[in-house]
Amino acid sequence: MRVVHTLAELRHALAGATGTAFVPTMGNLHEGHLSLVRLARERGGPVVASIFVNRLQFAPHEDFDTYPRTLERDCELLRATGCNLVFAPSEAELYPEPQSFTVQPPGELADILEGHFRPGFFTGVCTVVTKLFNCVQPRVAVFGKKDYQQLMVIRRMTRQLALPIEIVAGETSRAEDGLALSSRNGYLDAAQRAEAVALARELQGVAAELRRGRRDWSALEAAAMDALADRGWKVDYVAIRRQADLGAPADGEALVVLGAARIGSTRLIDNVEVGVAT
Ligand code: PAF
């Protein structure tokens, strides 16, 4: 496995490559990322992972400065998982001048849920992902369902901009107790880590009620938010949405229950699908 830091090295390393499968990351890798790399490997072409903590998708009060940078360990994990090439550019390499051209996703998809609580987040994500796509020029790109809305936004962006890239979704990896794996879990102390699974459990609880046939969406959402708040969480949202476009739920549609809440100062997100979109 090669590790390159510049666009020139990346282009040289990929010259003549076809069928590249790409896994973009911000590093501090865990089993969730590695499962995406394994999915990429199934495609048979060269597998490229990027490691870049993207300032554009962090608000000024968020954890850009403290986001764990663990390049050496990340590269060991990627090597052991069969990744062929790591692109780990510096900020100056990827953003050599202020990034005044940005990719603006539509409000109906990007200003709701995560976008409502993290204004500008999806513009930052779409801009860097477009740029990374242009750098790597993959045939396939793999994104985790853990960041469900991000996956939807990237899918729609890729489709509407006619990018010749297949977007593949990887299932969420979970710890034994059910907590969705996330780089931010590392911020939790022991007590918070034990409590953190409550988010997944509340979302599972809502999903179970939906499977039983309940359709009082707002009451289900409110009950889950109250239950988390009673346990000391600061809840941003628990929302039942259509899988297809994250629009308002309707009977007979494949649904997804999404949640975001803060335990201490750590904000966690998770989701559970109910039914399969056709
Ligand atoms: O999901 C992430 O880790 C990031 O949002 C991504 C897609 C690598 C863009 O910075």
The Rg value, from CA coordinates, equals: 19 Å
Q: Which molecules other than protein and nucleic acid are bound?
A: pantoate
Mean pLDDT over all positions: 97
Main beta sheet, described?
Answer: 6 strands, parallel
Spell out the helices and strands N to C. Answer: EHEHEHEHHHHEHEHHEEE
Strand content: 15-25%
Strand-pairing-aware structural class: alpha/beta
Count every beta strand, where a strand is a DSSP E run of 2 or more residues: 9
Runs in which pLDDT lies below 50 for 5 or more consecutive residues are none
Description:
With 278 residues, this protein is α/β, with parallel strands linked by helices. The protein is built from ten helices and nine strands. The strands form two sheets. The chain has a six-stranded parallel beta sheet with strand order 1-4-3-2-5-6, with helices on both faces. Strands 7-8-9 form a three-stranded antiparallel beta sheet. Helix 7 crosses helix 8 (148-160) and helix 9 runs antiparallel to helix 10 (217-230). It is globular and about 55 Å long. The site of pantoate has 10 residues, from strand 2 and helix 7.
